[in-house]
Amino acid sequence: MFSGVYTALITPFKDGKIDFDALERLIENQYENGVDGVVPCGTTGESPTLTYEEHEAVIEFCVKNARGRMKVLAGTGSNSTDEAIYFTRSAKNAGCDGALVVSPYYNKPTQKGLYLHFKTIADTVNIPIVLYNIAGRTSVNIEPATIAKLFEDCKNIIGVKEASGLVDQMSIIKSLVPDIELFSGDDALTLPSLSIGGVGVISVLSNIVPAKVVSLVRTFEKGDIKEAMRIHYRLFPLIKSMFMETNPIPVKTAASLLGICRADLRLPICEMEEANRLKLEKILKDFDLLK
Fold it and tell me: Suppose 35 and one of 30, 164, 196, 260 were both cysteines; which one would form an S-S bond, judging by CB atoms 3.0 to 4.6 Å apart?
């Protein structure tokens, strides 16, 4: 159902409000560069600081501007099951192709709690669901056995965005659930995840260089592994620069340097340290992205 390159969209801000003009340009640039889908209101989109009204408006705007040319996989997760159901239902009503549901953060549920959380959402809202596993930001790992049980028991849970950073965990998931749509949640692991049966990447990097990320995935899919490796290693320094500070600080700073949108962020996420900003500028220049 989902495969290829999906961009975890930044949410452009201007004077404290969502900059829909910049968001429209960003979405169009994704389409023009061959991206398969966009993911609004995820971690990269600063979803924790969006109001309910903003969250819904961004998703509706993305569906409208994607116009069926790309899929829209909306971020709808929360540490409250009821709130996650609300956002997931809203995404379905907006016409999204699916929902990306992050594991609950801060309250640290058990594996049973995680299972009941995701199953309740899946049972309540009939929309394709991709689980989002990122223990580094939520402090709880969705264990492969839990993912396998959810996949077996919930027909609309069809995939997982794995951002554990562990290729062995990805391998265990695929061994337990061969048919699951496994997305890399780390740009640095796109190629390794493809090599073990992954279907693509939900990418931060493709906000600024969508064509290059698409090229990596398409080249691998064509069977040209050597060229895919060359692209991977060429992109690697740029990928690492996107995470020299907390995401989405670097990617949004890069986007501003490239004229995509302003670097405005919402507290407690703040502007990039000047020393890191200078390092980022140099890397962008090394990639001929910035003069």
Answer: 30
